[in-house]
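User: I'm writing a short methods note and want a consistent example. For HTH crp-type domain-containing protein, I'll paste the sequence; you return only the structure tokens, no commentary, since I'll be parsing the reply automatically.
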Amino acid sequence: MSRRMYRNRCLAFLPDADLERLEQRLTPVSYEIGDVLLQADSPIDRIVFLERGLVSYVTRMDDGTSVESLTIGPDSAIGLMGGVGAPRALREAVMHVEGNGFAIATKDYLEAAEASPAIRDMTVRANTVTTAKLLQSVACNAKHSLEQRFARRILACSDASDAKRFALTQEQIADTLGVRRTSVTAAARALRDEGLIAYRHGRIWVENLAGLELRACGCRAAIRAEVDTLLPPHGAGAPKAKAG
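Assistant:
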């Protein structure tokens, strides 16, 4: 039987026999913008491997505001700390760009991992990807301009959704980047005036991918390199999911 091709890098990484261990227990899932996949300080009862879509890990502040800590798409998995025995989620995970994928109960994942060194290896590698993304995010927020970060965010959403057109409002971007809506509006207008993006009624189009890549910071390329090193697809024919 031919191997199913996955965009999710965790699933694409696994050898056939180990992938089959998970496939027997995977269930298809789909999510809309705003769906909560993990609640902070709540048990991690399942692990999600996105094929398309982007999730924001959100930190709630004392004043009631929230700031995004990092994003996860098809380049890793949501809730995978549960795969190493973490009892509770540290942060809330909210769907930022609608998408779909596969989910597995954490207890089933742990059983499969116990019988498979390859699954355990993938778990460590994917959690390392998540850590690398978090560290890169801290550096990006400290070093790069809002316009660079905004351009990177648009590219990340396009990569994760595998589309040049997707639903995303400027208010959502402002909330996740921790900046004022007016600042995001100005950044969006600048990129639109250069012919790099278009936007209307809560949707964004990437009009000039190469130009947008030039305006973004180098963090996207850095993360892609980490993902390619840590989670290379198994076999020459496996597709590569892009990282944001």
